[in-house]
Amino acid sequence: MSRPQQVARPIVRSLRQATGSSAACHSRPIALRQFSSTSIRKDETTTTTPAAAEPAADAALPGDKKPASFSTTIKQGSEEQLSRFLVPELGSRRRRAALATTGEVPFEQLPYQCFQEARKILAQDRDEKVAKIVAETAKAERLEAADASTFRGGEQYKQRRLESLREHIEELKILADINDPLVKRRFEDGKGDMNKPVYRYLAHRKWSSMDRKIVLQRLEQFHIVPDLLPKFEPVMDVKMTFRGYKVSPGAILNSRITESAPTLRMQVFDKGERVFSVVVMDADVPDAESDSFGKRLHFLATNIPWDPTKSILPLTRVGIDPSASTTYTVTPEPGALAVPWLPAFAQKGAPYHRMAVFVLQHADDAELDAAKLKELYDGAGREGFSLKSFRDKFALTPVGFSMFRSVWDENTADVMIRNEIPGVDVEFKRQRIVSLKPPRKARGWEAKRQGPKFRHLWKYTKRIKGVSFTKRGERKR
Amino acid sequence: MHFARLQRPLQRAAASSCRPFGAVLRATTSLQSRFAQLRITSPTAANAAVQGKRYASVKSQGAYRVKMKKTIPKKLGAKKTGDQYVIPGNILYKQRGTIWHAGENALMGRDHTIHATATGYVKYYRDPLLHPKRQYIGVVFNREDKLPYPKGTPRRRKLNLSAVPRKIDEAVEEEITARSGIPLSVTRHDLVEQTTDTGAVAADQTGSGASSKAQEPVPLTDGNAVVSSLIREKLRSRASGQAKNEAERLRKEKELEARRGTRVFRLQDDYSYRESNWEIGRLVGDAGIIPGADMTEPRKAKFRLRRRKRMVHFKGIKKRKMAKAGRRDEYRGRVREKRAGRLVQRVEAAAAVKATQAAAAAAAAAAKAATAAQTKVEA
Asked: What ranges does the record give for the region Disordered, renumbered to this chain (chain B) (predicted)?
């Protein structure tokens, strides 16, 4: 210990003892606070006030308390309750919470630094892509203008080259917008313009992620391929609703619900106009005479124009006459009705019927003759309908698929009577399969004592439950 | 008599043995006697008779034993040949493992046995498109068909059902009176208290009120409002769920009470009215519930609880020990600190004393020197 320290120490100690009360207090409250959840007075003054003030300032930051121009309410309820509305604008819970917290600040002006920086980068990337598109388009034009003889491959080479260039341009168009948060948002809200390739691309990606897989599984597990078609790959989204109720593909539906035709929600993912035919058919019509199953056409509408922007097709309104209905006006859907809707039904005892809904695309957008189809398939032509031969005869390509199943239920009889469908009074029963083994004589104690020798035991041997005997003691046949 | 019978063979044996050989061949003895002498009874048989032994005329137990397990025939292999007619359920092939796989209209059982699922003809085949190495057993409806069927063709199916007129189940009208005109049953009601009823209604009202409130939209102000609304919603749903449960319990209780109050007496064969046994039994509780036997604590849960209790107990002990050790350490630390402080104090005090002593000595020396100088000056 150095000399000055030796001199100073007693002074310091005397000073510490003089202020001892406050110094000792410093350690004591910590020990006390172990048992109390509230803060001591000294801490309160330093910490609590800013904690109360700061969040209020933060909350006030995004927007003023002006009356909002858009809807400022969100629907309350569980996810299940909300999903019934089927409104894409509703979005996920996360989206709703985000909407709720950002107020009326435009999405692209959200005051998050990282978000804004990322947007700058994305904009730069988009500019690059656009420049590339311009360059590639110019290149394609030049190529088109060029004489095919200048290439070694000739015309074929030129066409191939052009095709690949156009494909590349389409890809670039998608890539230019694919990362744009606004595009993403608009798509999630269901407000995307399906004429633009990026929205079609997003829609296709969404469909492929789950719905397509389910449809493929149904095609396989219900043997639609190869029972109805030898080969089939759906390329468009077809969803079905009966009276506004969503129907998952392959569901067993009550015959009361399927009495009227469904509404199809169809989405195609490639550009351009085309013409569709819609076929609904039963793949399991029981035929007791030939001991096999047949097919039946339930609905056929044709010449339905379609493009990516369209989504809903009520089959009940296809090709109807608007003047026929006097009670209320209905807008008819474009297209021609060849075979009107026959309610789905299954006779009692028959195994489930697979009702397949097919969307077929016409070759070269050519329209079919609806009158001829009516003549061919309506009435008696419904029975034994073959989709394969229909496809081949009219040069159609199956593109979309959905299905449901029907079984005999409590409403089927009423539905059949109401629609004058024959076969209500028929029921299917299992056929008995005769055993290959020869019949065996009765065995056991009773069987041995059936004869007249054991007349005194007949009161025991002839009173067998489930076996009836004649008065003379012989077994009834 | 007995003794004589026993003695006879002995005597005969003795005679034959001691008789000279020449005597045997003597011409005077009759042929019969000679044969009798030649007939030699076996000595053991004679002994057995002597000892009273008998031999089994029926085979003893254990002759037909179950043979060694390893050698029991498993009777594996094909049970039906190709093109043989089969019906559903027939065994086509028994095997260990999957030597053959189930093909068209066949299924594989739990022990890999192949069964038929349709009437038809057995076919043994391979399907390289389905699997390159597997061999299949299938059943076809027509004998001349070949398996596998070409790919992409519709499945061959049979309905196996026959169409019959549909039987319409008409509701059977219950008879109220017996043929003689007297009622088949008599129902007796007791009065039920109305207090529980009002409680249930009140619970229902609260439940409906909560649900109607949940539909109201919530204004968007900031995130906190949304979160708080979510929390409120959750609490509300929980409360409504509890109310619903309570109402359900009350309803059940009421039902049981009503059932206990209602007694149905049915007409018996002897024209007496009596409650049926199952109704008497139902008085104590619902169907399928044995009173006193429901809601018993499961054995496993009991042990789980015991385990947890023990764990808590031992944890408490450990905690207390730890706390004690902590207190001890603290105390020791304090003592150590105090001791160190005291030591420092002592050292400082000693130093101070030394310093004062030194100062005093120096002062004394200085004084001495001063006095010496004074004396020197005085001198």
From this structure: 200-220
